[in-house]
Amino acid sequence: MAPTNEEKPTQDPKKAGSGEDEEEVVDEKGASGQASKDMQNVSKYIADFDSGVDKNKLDEIVSSLSAINKKQKDEAASKSKEQEKIALPKEEIELVMKEFDLSKPAAEKALRDNAGDLEKTLKALLA
Question: pTM above 0.90?
């Protein structure tokens, strides 16, 4: 005879709502427990890693790298200013443009990179 609404089979209060066997609940707890244990291990690793970094040394390194970067930028800017002072004959610029099929700014840069020396510029462009 099929149970009616009044005759529902009683369930164990521990299993109420889950509808799962006891073994499956244990497996979930086991997997959940393992995941929890793994997370604790990861947390400990991160805590150990963070404590191994000396923030003062890190700040020193960052500031020294910033100083080196600034110095390199300053040197490049001063070199660029020095190169702009080099007088370049129009004929040499046109020769480099014509022979190497370069734009005027590219030809001027090539000449300036070689201190305005046409021979060095031609050799550098051939290499």
Answer: no
